[in-house]
Amino acid sequence: MGQQSLIYSFVARGTVVLAEYTEFTGNFTSIASQCLQKLPATNNKFTYNCDGHTFNYLVDNGFTYCVVAVEAVGRQVPIAFLERIKEDFTSRYGGGKAATAVANSLNKEFGSKLKEHMQYCVDHPEEISKLAKVKAQVSEVKGVMMENIEKVRPCDYLYVQNKKTFI
């Protein structure tokens, strides 16, 4: 994976960018900002493709985490990166400073963290890939368990109803 695979990242509260990082120049910052303005406020992950790049967003509890990546890198590394920065950002600022911070006021503190996480994800794609596979397996098992619980619930309810009728 090349040095340029993750090229830009930011953390925003609503549409206000609190911290960002890039070593490159280009119009990707304005495209990422335009996409941010149009994102639904619901907690979810979004990816947009444009000119060989992906614009990946993770929206969670009023905060948006973004990374622009080269399309060839796929989705696993950018999504893993977003999860990492969300966890780091929330542990540092959750319920505090980030709730009232003004635009770009966290650049000095968190911009370097964005750089560190970008570098880590670029340098350890095999670890990110393994972690993504494990998370996918856990998610699959969780889904199967939820299905099984849903299958059992109506039977329990019917049993209670039947028991009630016999009493």
TrEMBL record:
Any single GO CC term annotated in Swiss-Prot or TrEMBL for this entry: endomembrane system
Transmembrane listed as a keyword: no
Pfam name, any one: Longin
Membrane: is it a keyword of this entry?
Answer: yes
Q: Which SUPFAM superfamilies match?
A: SNARE fusion complex, SNARE-like
Q: InterPro entries annotated for this entry?
A: Longin-like_dom_sf, Longin_dom, Synaptobrevin-like_transport
Q: Where in the cell is it found?
A: Endomembrane system
According to its UniProt record, where is this protein mainly located? membrane
Keywords from the named record:
Membrane
Please indicate which superkingdom the organism of origin belongs to: Eukaryota
Q: How does it sit in the membrane?
A: Single-pass type IV membrane protein
Q: Which family does it belong to?
A: Belongs to the synaptobrevin family.
Q: What is this protein called?
A: Longin domain-containing protein
Write down the species. Pyrus ussuriensis x Pyrus communis
